[in-house]
Amino acid sequence: MADDTVVIVGAGLAGAKAAETLRAEGFSGAIRLVGAEEELPYERPPLSKDYLLGDAERASTAVHESGWYADNEVDLLLGTAAVDVHRDTRDVELAGGRRLAYTHLILATGASPRRLSLPGAELKGVYYLRELRDSDRIRAALRTGNPVAVIGGGWIGLEVAAAAWQYGCPVTVVEPQTVPLGSTLGTEVGQYFADAHRRHGVRVLTGQRPRSLIGSGHVMGVTTDAGEEIEADTVLIAVGASPNTALARGGGLALDDANHGVVVDEYLRTADPTIAAAGDVASARHPFYGRHVRVEHWANALGMGPAAARTLLGRGQPYDELPFFYTDQYDIGMEFIGLLDPRASHELVVRGDMEENSFHTFWLTDGRVVAGMHVNRWSDGIEPAKRLIRSRATVDAARLADPSVPLDGVEVGAH
Prior knowledge:
This protein is α/β, with parallel strands linked by helices. It has helices at residues 13-24, 66-71, 132-142, 155-166, 182-185, 187-199, 246-250, 298-312, 383-391, 397-401; strands at 5-9, 30-34, 74-77, 82-86, 91-94, 99-101, 104-107, 111-113, 126-127, 148-151, 171-175, 203-206, 210-216, 218-224, 229-231, 234-237, 241-243, 262-264, 275-277, 282-286, 291-293, 324-329, 332-338, 347-353, 358-365, 368-375. Strand 4 and strand 5 (91-94) form a beta hairpin. Helix 1 (13-24) packs parallel to helix 8. The longest helix is centred in the last third of the chain and has 15 residues, at 298-312. The radius of gyration is 22 Å and the shape is globular.
């Protein structure tokens, strides 16, 4: 093991946690962590939350302090893009031609924002949010208090809209669905988030698509296919992300056509036993769901990085964590767990009062809980939903909706 070399491509949360786990669990060989950004590995959720709002220091986003890498003999190659994987010679080619030999390779290359091809997309004041420097630029723009347009009503778009409101900016969200998050959470819960933004004075335009960005040198507004012209000095485009699979594709690794990620088994191994993948880029066989799943949220990177490292150490376990994410918007603190299959029909059960911003929601398929969410219910949080999902038990929807019934008594036959 002392003569082995693990190369980790992707110096984000998954990659940094993989390096940490290798050292913590006794790996004594070389570790080389390659990242295209100049920044120390950092966590991304603050970029649209407390860091964007100015409530967190830059250093607080780092996965480890700068000295940790030298102290743990992790060779950190920042500002360095990996351009190819040569599986026949077991090395990774970097921009400029340098090659890093590996015994094992972890691909933690993450995802990149989807780009919109619109007239005016090259204007100044148009942003995408993925990197720390993007958050810096957007924060500087929001501090002006000038009008903001957000194209895309997903999690990133809504979080930035909430931040812009807190900076005092007039804000408009343009969303092509009938409600934000409709394809993710359904109409009723999507409407809850839309209403929360409207209560704060954010203009939410649904069923409309951007047609062009207008301005001369700097953006001045957005036009939509419904004939709206929105004044905006700052435009955020937040229409999803695509996994960075070019390196895997160039190395001849299998990609998942449905999930668009690198195909790995439940141990996060590709078909090449020397290569694993973790985080946003990995389409992993999930033991609980019995199919491949790709998740782009923070918790997945946090868990998959260590899991991939343990697999390379020969002590891996099937990775079966349930998908989890959270958001903070205005006075809303939300956690979600589970997986909603867009091909399946779901029954939504609300427990509590949406108008009071304190409730649970559960999504049922064939009488079984497949996903759950809570808003500001920190006393019981997400654990009841997690337990019900894991149990696969049939539940009584009426009892599940009744706050007077304990959540451990909602299963059919439990009363």
